[in-house]
């Protein structure tokens, strides 16, 4: 297209390619020569001049590939790709096919291009050169040198455009034809083919992109030196930068790397590509649940998301839901002016220039001016700086104050308190735990296994086609290359080794293969995200009934370790399915027993739903109450699948008790507490911190998933001694958990009725359970039984998820 | 920085260059003093990632020419892409539908970016300009387009720095610039590179005021957005730096270069800590991005492939084949569930 640009900027890759190509042509260690015997007729050996020897050689496609594989110790797929690149750039070309620059892994023949014709060997050819070449061909034997249609057309155009030079062009062409006649036949064939291949690269047929094309940006079209001329100013700047770098403090490489490794380890859990997504990756499963559960603002965040807030304050405030929860918490503590100030300054920094003046003043009036409605507490020095900056207001006016608030108040005080707070713990406890789905639901688009007997809808079909498109992954194991029996067309066993390609792929390595998924090398290994095909668990339908199930972590130890637990569930579910819909309610019972933890906690939550709002006057006080109450030892409900009933009533009583205590304390709190300022609440909190610290341990004690280092540190000290007490304590706090969360959730309506009666009658719950069951759209389950069956199989091979 | 007041001074370009050279040597010595361990050895305790099940899940067809740049919407499913023929397309990548197609008054639209709100996109290229388009389904997007800034050479990259109100650009004129979207005012310019700026990326921190740039002068520079000063520089690449990305921790940057290597530079150790290369990889890298944990580095090459690197063990995990021409751009989706790639074969693909 813009071929004259070629000369300008020669990418590094060409050096490397040329090095490789030279090695390939090495007489001893290069690609073996197989040609002469096969092609005696076209290239009589008699004509092979010594000087041209290299160019007379022909090579078999698979020899090229094999050589590359050995030389670079790479897999076949990679070698094939590389060989094709070299071919695209014109370092060798297929002898029998002048149209397609493609290397086939078979016995087709290839010839190396003369270095004279290598890209960048000379000035890029111009249109006159091309015109000469085309007219030359038009002068020669029609049979062998006839021009293609597009070439004819180009020749016509060139003749028009270069009319004034056409005589010259014709003379040149005639000269070259004459010269060509002097050549021996074999040499002629070779040079013709090389010339042709050269033009195939530099003037590709329409619709094909030349691999030599580059972005036509100005500096790249300048010859040679692409860096600008340096001025004194540049020099000074560089020296300054270097001087600054010299005085920079740096840490030991080991230290830096250790923390990087730690970071990655910590976050691997949150990396969908490494650890997968729960319940499934929407791109793979066609199920949007994951995105729905994780929208920026949600009523009830997933447990994982809440856990992530515990990693660092940055994690918390960069998540809109996290920021909202944090703000709510601080508001309860009457100390949310800090976070509000922080947000306002962030907003200021990102505001339009025209808004800056106004916003600076607003912020000052609200947070910093003497007697401001939301005065923040910063030291005199910082305040002084702010006042200085206020003289010339800018988007950075409050940076120092913001920094102060962020590091000293938010990060070192508010954030750790938040993480240790009931509020956070409760969020964690009610957090949604989407599990890998075990079966299909009727809603949403789902991808079905090909083996499904039910009729797939068109959208799905289309999707499947898409996903079987050309692609490939090749990993690790480089299996032995096949033997000498090479088929011409690329072959199945090759695919098995080297990954996927095919479909409409124009590029050489195209084999169509639909059955790839059956190929054994793809056996899934555990630990890596492979939610192939969606499976649905009942956790997916939570919004149909209540908010997602707040699963009590303590009771459900058997639920917690994802895989085994869900296996159990699968079993249960399947059992439930096999029994027909009429029996469904009954079928639900066994399940309940495995999950009683979750259920009972939800009931628990129901009980207390009213209280929280009123109780939220002051968190520290709440906590104390909880602490007190928790000192009354209560029998811990066994985590085994005991029937939930006794359990529940037990806890219900307790929680009722708490509620009462609450109300009592409330009046006290209400009186004393009204305008308590953040400072006092902070100190207030100090006492509680000790005890509260233990609360953070949640994940650890539960023996649930891995806990975060942060939490670990916070809690490590407390864990041992307070474990028992804490168990109780947690039980106590459980109700509150749900309180705020569920009370907020509009979906929790069915529950919110029951708390009104304070002690909800037992049957109520059961019926509700059943109701929720009915809502879940698996009515048509029987038809899908076999789907589930087959899916479950895959699921178990996955081992994990 | 006293660059503004150069005036007549005893310094000549030559003397300054000489000084710079000696400083560089000293700097390298300082860095070596603390170079006590390799990344691969620190990462030894980690398990090897030896299998990945990443496959193409979507193919976005609609561009008539090379796809040059793309960017994920913060909503995790839309993509904006720009191409050589001057088209910019907004895709719902999930359904593969095109929601907007905008024709730019230029070819080679080399950069495009989604604003954090998802309601605005910016693009530009050989026109030397950065133009923003508010997205609305009701009216023609081009009606409300607005040219924000103009460079003296092509615009190679752009990014919204956590705000719809500002845009940061890099250009062939070897500078970067921060613009006020509403007024088109140049808020800050960044001088320091001696050749085309090819790529920029923001530090991941919400409040962060730093960004990184990569250039054809082979340098990687870290900038303070507020002061406009370069605060750190990394050398090492042997050719153009085409792509640079902050590690999610914010403490390192990964780069991809025409020298066919990717590298990792640690900001605190102030040096290169890893090179990702193989003898068999001889083509330039156009684009790199991290998985959300930083464990994996995806890199798109001129040889049509995407290589996936284990950043810590410094080995290649796998190769992704599929594109039929150079992979020009690539980006992990905001929630890390997918990888988008754009190619000169005029398609985009989404892998997961």
From TrEMBL, chain A:
The keyword Cell cycle does not apply. The keyword Cell membrane does not apply. Residues 555-564 have a biased composition (Polar residues). Residues 235-301 form the G protein gamma domain. Residues 444-564, 630-652, 692-712, 718-737, 743-775 are annotated as: Disordered. It comes from the Eukaryota. CDD domains: DEP_RGS7-like, GGL, RGS_R7-like. Residues 60-114 form the DEP domain. Keywords: Signal transduction inhibitor. Residues 312-428 form the RGS domain. Signal peptide: none annotated. Residues 634-646 have a biased composition (Pro residues). It holds the Pfam family DEP. InterPro entries: DEP_dom, G-protein_gamma-like_dom, GGL_sf, RGS, RGS6/7/9/11, RGS6/7/9/11_DHEX_sf, RGS_DHEX, RGS_Egl-10. SUPFAM superfamilies: Regulator of G-protein signaling, RGS, Transducin (heterotrimeric G protein), gamma chain, Winged helix' DNA-binding domain. Residues 697-712 have a biased composition (Basic and acidic residues). This is Regulator of G-protein signaling 11 isoform X4. It comes from Nicrophorus vespilloides (Boreal carrion beetle).
UniProtKB/TrEMBL annotation, chain B:
It comes from the Eukaryota. InterPro entries: G-protein_beta_1-5, WD40/YVTN_repeat-like_dom_sf, WD40_G-protein_beta-like, WD40_PAC1, WD40_repeat_CS, WD40_repeat_dom_sf, WD40_rpt. Residues 10-40 form a coiled coil. Gene3D superfamilies: YVTN repeat-like/Quinoprotein amine dehydrogenase. Keywords: Coiled coil, Repeat, Transducer, WD repeat. SUPFAM superfamilies: WD40 repeat-like (SSF50978). WD repeats lie at residues 60-101, 148-189, 190-233, 234-275, 285-310, 320-352. Belongs to the WD repeat G protein beta family. This is Guanine nucleotide-binding protein subunit beta-5-like. The lineage of its organism: Eukaryota, Metazoa, Ecdysozoa, Arthropoda, Hexapoda. The gene is LOC108562856.
């Amino acid at each position: 297209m813009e071929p004259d640009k070629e000369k300008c900027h020669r990418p590094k890759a060409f050096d490397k390619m040329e090095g490789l190509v030279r090695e390939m042509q090495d007489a001893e260690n290069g690609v073996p020569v197989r040609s002469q015997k096969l092609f005696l007729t076209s290239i009589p050996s008699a004509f092979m001049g010594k000087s041209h020897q290299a160019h007379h050689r022909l090579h078999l496609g698979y020899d090229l590939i094999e050589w590359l594989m050995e030389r670079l110790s790479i897999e076949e797929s990679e070698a094939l790709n590389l060989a094709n690149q070299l071919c695209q750039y014109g370092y060798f070309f297929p002898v029998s096919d002048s149209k397609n620059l493609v290397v086939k892994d078979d016995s087709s023949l290839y010839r190396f291009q003369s270095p004279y014709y290598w890209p960048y060997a000379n000035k890029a050819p111009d249109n006159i050169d091309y015109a000469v070449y085309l007219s030359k061909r038009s002068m020669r034997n029609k049979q062998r040198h006839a021009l293609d249609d597009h070439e004819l057309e180009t020749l016509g155009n060139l003749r028009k455009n270069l009319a004034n030079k056409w005589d010259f062009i014709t003379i040149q062409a005639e000269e070259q034809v004459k010269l060509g006649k002097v050549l021996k036949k074999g040499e002629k064939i070779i040079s013709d083919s090389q010339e042709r291949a050269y033009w195939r690269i530099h003037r590709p047929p329409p619709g094909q992109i030349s691999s030599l094309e580059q972005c036509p940006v100005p500096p790249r079209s300048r010859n040679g030196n692409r860096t600008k001329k340096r001025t004194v100013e540049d020099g000074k700047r560089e020296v300054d930068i270097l001087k600054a770098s010299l005085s920079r403090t740096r840490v030991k490489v080991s230290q830096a790397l250790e923390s990087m490794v730690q970071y990655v380890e910590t976050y691997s859990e949150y990396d969908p590509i490494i650890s997968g997504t729960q319940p499934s990756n929407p791109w793979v499963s066609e199920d949007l649940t994951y995105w729905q559960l994780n929208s920026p603002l949600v009523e009830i965040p997933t447990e994982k998301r809440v856990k992530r807030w515990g990693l660092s304050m940055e994690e918390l405030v960069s998540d809109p839901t996290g920021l909202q929860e944090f703000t709510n918490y601080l508001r309860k503590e009457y100390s949310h002016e800090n976070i509000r100030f922080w947000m306002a300054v962030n907003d200021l920094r990102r505001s339009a220039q025209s808004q800056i003046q106004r916003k600076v003043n607003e912020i000052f009036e609200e947070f910093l001016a003497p007697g401001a409605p939301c005065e923040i507490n910063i030291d005199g020095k910082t305040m002084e700086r702010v006042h200085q900056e206020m003289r010339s207001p800018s988007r950075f006016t409050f940076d120092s104050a913001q920094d102060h608030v962020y590091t000293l108040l938010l990060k070192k005080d508010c954030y750790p308190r938040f993480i240790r707070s009931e509020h956070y713990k409760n969020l964690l406890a009610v957090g949604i735990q989407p599990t890998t789905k075990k079966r299909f639901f009727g809603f949403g688009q789902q991808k079905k296994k090909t083996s499904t007997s039910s009729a797939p809808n068109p959208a799905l079909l289309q999707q499947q086609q898409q996903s079987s498109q050309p692609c490939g992954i090749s990993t690790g194991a480089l299996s032995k290359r096949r033997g000498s029996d090479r088929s011409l067309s690329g072959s199945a066993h090759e695919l098995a080794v080297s990954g996927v390609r095919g479909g409409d792929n124009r590029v050489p390595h195209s084999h169509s293969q639909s059955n790839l998924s059956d190929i054994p090398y793809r056996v899934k290994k555990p630990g890596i995200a492979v939610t192939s095909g969606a499976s649905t668990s009942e956790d997916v339908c939570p919004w149909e009934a209540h908010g997602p199930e707040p699963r009590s972590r303590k009771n459900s130890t058997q639920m917690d370790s994802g895989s085994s637990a869900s296996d159990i569930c699968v079993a249960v579910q399947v059992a439930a399915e096999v029994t027909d819909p009429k029996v469904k309610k009954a079928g639900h019972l066994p399940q309940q027993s495995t999950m009683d933890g979750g259920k009972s906690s939800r009931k628990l939550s129901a009980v207390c739903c009213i209280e929280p709002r009123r109780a939220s006057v002051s968190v520290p006080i709440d906590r104390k109450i909880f602490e007190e109450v928790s000192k009354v030892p209560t029998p811990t409900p066994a985590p085994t699948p005991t029937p939930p009933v006794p359990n529940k009533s037990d806890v219900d009583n307790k929680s009722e008790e708490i509620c009462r205590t609450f109300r009592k304390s409330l009046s006290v709190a209400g009186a004393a507490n009204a305008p308590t300022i953040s400072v006092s609440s902070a100190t207030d909190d100090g006492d509680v911190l000790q005890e509260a610290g233990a609360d953070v341990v949640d994940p650890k004690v539960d023996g649930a998933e891995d806990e975060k280092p942060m939490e670990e540190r916070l809690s490590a000290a407390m864990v041992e001694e307070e474990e028992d007490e804490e168990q109780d304590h947690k039980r106590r706090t459980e109700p509150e958990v749900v309180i705020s969360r569920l009370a907020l959730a509009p979906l929790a309506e069915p529950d919110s009725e029951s708390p009104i009666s304070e002690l909800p009658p037992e049957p109520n719950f059961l019926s509700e359970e059943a109701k929720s069951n009915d809502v879940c759209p698996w009515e048509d389950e029987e038809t899908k039984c076999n789907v589930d069956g087959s899916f479950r199989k895959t699921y178990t091979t996955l081992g994990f998820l | 920085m006293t660059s503004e007041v150069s005036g007549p001074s005893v310094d000549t370009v030559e003397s300054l260059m000489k000084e710079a050279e000696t400083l560089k040597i000293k700097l390298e010595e300082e860095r070596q003093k603390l170079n006590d361990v390799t990344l691969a050895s620190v990462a030894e305790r980690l398990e090897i990632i030896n299998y990945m099940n990443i496959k193409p899940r979507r193919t976005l067809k609609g561009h008539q020419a090379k796809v040059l740049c793309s960017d994920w919407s913060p909503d995790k499913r839309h993509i904006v892409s720009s191409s050589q023929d001057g088209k910019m397309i907004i895709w719902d990548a999930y359904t593969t539908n095109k929601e907007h197609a905008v024709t730019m008054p230029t070819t080679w639209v080399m950069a495009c970016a989604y604003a954090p709100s998802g309601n605005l996109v910016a693009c530009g290229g050989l026109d030397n300009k950065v133009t923003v388009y508010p997205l609305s389904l009701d009216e023609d997007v081009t009606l409300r387009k607005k040219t924000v800034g103009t460079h003296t050479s092509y615009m190679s990259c752009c990014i919204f720095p956590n705000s719809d109100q500002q845009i940061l650009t890099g250009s062939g004129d070897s500078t970067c610039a921060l613009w006020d979207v509403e007024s088109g005012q140049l808020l800050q310019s960044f001088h320091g590179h001696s050749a085309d700026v090819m790529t920029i990326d923001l530090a991941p921190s919400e409040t962060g005021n730093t960004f990184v740039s990569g250039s054809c002068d082979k340098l990687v520079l870290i900038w303070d957005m507020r002061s406009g000063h370069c605060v750190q520089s990394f050398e090492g690449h042997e050719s153009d730096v085409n792509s640079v990305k902050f590690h999610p921790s914010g403490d390192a940057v990964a780069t991809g270069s025409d020298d066919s290597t990717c590298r990792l530079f640690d900001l605190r150790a102030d040096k290169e800590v890893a090179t990702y290369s193989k003898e068999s990889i001889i083509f330039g890298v156009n684009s790199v991005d991290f998985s959300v944990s930083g464990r994996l580095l995806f890199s798109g090459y001129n040889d049509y492939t995407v290589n996936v690197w284990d950043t810590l063990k410094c080995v290649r995990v796998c190769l992704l084949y599929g594109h039929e021409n150079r992979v020009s751009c690539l980006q992990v989706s905001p929630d890390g569930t997918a990888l988008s790639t754009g190619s000169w074969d005029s398609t985009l693909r989404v892998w997961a």
